[in-house]
Design brief:
Helix content is 98%, strand content 0%. It contains two helices and no strands. The protein starts with a helix and ends with a helix.
Length: 120
């Protein structure tokens, strides 16, 4: 099929050549321009395809990094919540120890005062 197209183009060129030299050169220059335009369009499509592939890869990398950042943020948030709970537990224990110490001190003071009153 391709050979028949080439044969037709060659026969068309020979026909134009028989009409005269200027027609041949005009047709030849038109064909050259047409081939150059086709080559430029094909090159442009290849470049666009490569750019789209690169853009897609970049987008996938960006999405992967964003997912990793979200995962890390969630882990940090969980660690934060765990640390807050631990701190609350420690504060409660310290408050309980302080209250016990205060009660013991009050009891000791009351006992000492009662002794002094009973002696006096």
């Amino acid at each position: 099929m391709d050979k028949s197209i080439v044969n037709e183009v060659v026969s068309a060129l020979e026909a134009v050549k028989s009409y005269g030299q200027p027609g041949f050169w005009i047709l030849l220059s038109i064909l050259i321009v047409l081939v150059l335009v086709i080559a430029a369009v094909m090159y442009q499509r290849i470049v666009i395809k490569r750019f789209q592939t690169a853009s897609k890869t970049t987008q996938e990398n960006f999405e992967t990094k964003a997912a990793d950042l979200r995962k890390r943020a969630l882990e940090v948030k969980k660690q934060d919540e765990g640390l807050k709970r631990e701190l609350e537990v420690k504060e409660r224990k310290q408050q309980q120890v302080l209250k016990r110490s205060q009660r013991a001190l009050k009891g000791s003071v009351s006992h000492t005062m009662l002794r002094q009153i009973s002696k006096g």
